[in-house]
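Dear colleagues,

As part of the handover before I leave the project, I'm documenting each prediction I ran so the next person doesn't have to rerun anything. This entry is a single chain, and its sequence is reproduced below.
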Amino acid sequence: MKTKKIVLYSIIVLVILATLFSMIPIHIQREIPAVYYRTDNTNYEVKTTIRLDGYLFHSPLFFRKKYTGKFIVDDIAFTKKEDAKTEFVMDSNSKKNGANISICYKQNGEYTSPNLGMLKMKGNLKEIKMLVWEPMDNSNQKTSKYLFLVAPASNKEEATKIANEFKKTNEIF
């Protein structure tokens, strides 16, 4: 009887420690080659780079990941502002629909947060697929059906291959 209690308490302590350990944020600092491509124009291909510098938090109890930090896309000017920050949460619903990404920064003394797009990721932001909102500026009127940004990729063929891998899991885009 006493042995069973010790085993039960040991298991409980191990589960608590594993949960706490998995909640330690992971520092992510990397540059990823990326490619824009359009589904409505087979000739459209633009190479760029995504730069990440932030922290990825895991919440194993709610199956969520939260990223806080810089998310810079080389050819989107408002992502490069010095005080630009982003924060997004990936949960079980986001895996299907994507997480909306906004970049928050100060402009003319006031904070603004234009949308960048809908993001899906695999791993700890090792593979990224994003439906990019257009126009790619800080305006509020944005829409998109056709422009994708995929990383890591060095050409359109690699980008579409990665994008199609995301689709295999019965996701919306």
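The first strand starts at residue 26 and ends at 38. The mean pLDDT is 84.

All the best with the project,
I.
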